[in-house]
Specification:
mainly alpha, flat
Length: about 280
């Protein structure tokens, strides 16, 4: 009798557990279906939604359609917009087209512009073309320039070319320089070459240096070499050091080597130690 009662209890527990699992699975399925409906996915089953959920889904779908219409997406359904939303969309579309036209975008539809907007667009186009012609960037159409603008562009291009020549730009056209610009360009090139030589940079032509510049360059190169030797760099040329500089470096290296051997840290060459120094070195270092 006792065994039968225990079996009965276990059966009840199993049924309750199974019911809970089924209820949880069903609840999870409803939640997933609601999410699919809100996202507009094909997996949505409208028949499984409650009245409140259907309303919520409809509001979400409507809001998504409004956003799609505002963004100009193909998925926009204008027939589902309210009258205020349709008017707001028309205003936004018109302003976007005006902006596209003023910015020179291909999406511009000139037929939708008002006369004043068309005039404003034409002014913007003229200004962009003028800037492109002056800067030498973008698409310049000289046929659209007025005589005064053409003269301004020619002047700006001459100044730009002179600046390129003075700065050593590859776009320089020496044939377009005036006599004074040619002199200024030559002076700038000479200063740039002297600076390159003194700093040890590439594109240095020693033959173009004055005696004073040559001396300054030689002094600078000597200091660069001395610094390289002090720092044990591969570019060091010991042959270019003076006897005094060479002695200073030898003494400094001797002290460094002794310190390395004494502390047991860094490169140590015991063969270069004096007898007295060797005696102070602990065998474990």
């Amino acid at each position: 009798m006792k065994a039968g009662f225990q079996k009965y209890l276990w059966a009840q527990v199993a049924c309750l557990s199974l019911g809970t699992i089924l209820a949880f699975g069903q609840s999870s399925g409803f939640a997933q279906n609601l999410e699919a409906c809100k996202a507009g996915r094909a997996a949505c089953d409208q028949s499984k939604l409650s009245a409140a959920q259907s309303t919520d889904v409809a509001l979400t779908s409507h809001g998504r359609n409004v956003v799609n219409c505002r963004n100009g997406y193909d998925s926009c359904d204008r027939s589902k917009l309210t009258e205020p939303e349709t008017i707001a969309l028309a205003v936004a579309d018109h302003q976007r087209n005006v902006t596209d036209c003023n910015d020179g975008m291909q999406s511009c539809d000139r037929s939708k512009l008002t006369p004043s907007e068309a005039r404003e667009m034409a002014v913007g186009q003229q200004q962009r073309n003028l800037a492109a012609c002056k800067d030498g960037t973008g698409a310049c159409d000289r046929s659209k320039l007025t005589p005064a603008e053409t003269e301004g562009v020619n002047s700006a291009r001459r100044e730009l070319n002179a600046s390129d020549c003075e700065n050593g730009s590859g776009l320089c056209d020496h044939a377009q320089l005036t006599a004074s610009q040619t002199q200024e360009t030559a002076a700038a090139q000479h200063r740039r070459n002297a600076q390159n030589c003194e700093n040890g940079w590439d594109e240095c032509d020693h033959s173009q240096l004055t005696p004073l510049e040559a001396k300054q360059t030689a002094d600078s190169e000597h200091q660069h070499n001395l610094s390289a030797c002090k720092d044990s760099e591969a570019t060091c040329d010991y042959a270019k050091l003076t006897p005094a500089e060479a002695k200073i470096l030898v003494d400094a290296e001797h002290k460094r080597n002794y310190a390395a051997c004494l502390k047991g840290y860094g490169y140590c060459d015991p063969s270069r130690l004096t007898v007295e120094e060797a005696r102070t070195i602990h065998p474990d270092n």
